[in-house]
Amino acid sequence: IPPTICYIDACSARGSGDFGSNGYGLVFREHEFDEVTTEPTDFEWTLPSGDRSVCFEVKKLSEEHGWVAHAPAGPATSPQVGDRVTILVNHSCPVVNLCNRLSVKTKDGSFPKYIDLISHGCCQ
Questions:
Q1: In angstroms, what CA-CA distances link 26 with 15, 121, 124?
Q2: What positions does the domain D-serine dehydratase-like occupy (predicted)?
């Protein structure tokens, strides 16, 4: 395993094959995601408490897994085996009907708003 990468149980069917300015998306620790109110810069952001946190770039997606870059401080500060994460995908149009709900944040930063999807598993 390359020392700069960790693997996640997420796949291209749940993300997008569109590569953007943040790779294929950003990975946040699940317990911190609701506190994200601004777009991270250099993969760092500030929690409402004032503490700093990091997110991680999805570098590659396959049909079964995702490859995620470790935090700049190294593997010890990256998600560990068993940690739950939330992935903010680069482009979600082709995969919306494959998920149970969407997480939405408004321009004023209010969050979270969840929209349950009734189209889960339906054909387009």
A1: 11, 24, 27
A2: 32-103
Q: Report whether the peptide linkage leading into residue 2 is cis, meaning its omega lies within 30 degrees of zero.
A: no
In the chain, the amino acid numbered 18 is D
Q: What is the DSSP string of 61-116?
A: E-SS-EEEEPPTT-GGGS--TT--EEEEES--GGGGGGSSEEEE--TT----EEEE
CA–CA dist 15, 18 (Å, integer):
9
CA angle, 73 as apex, 67 and 75 as ends, to 5°? 45
Task: Give which of 101, 80, 90, 99 is closest to 39, Cα–Cα.
Answer: 90
Strand partners, 29: 85
Domain ranges of the chain: 5-91
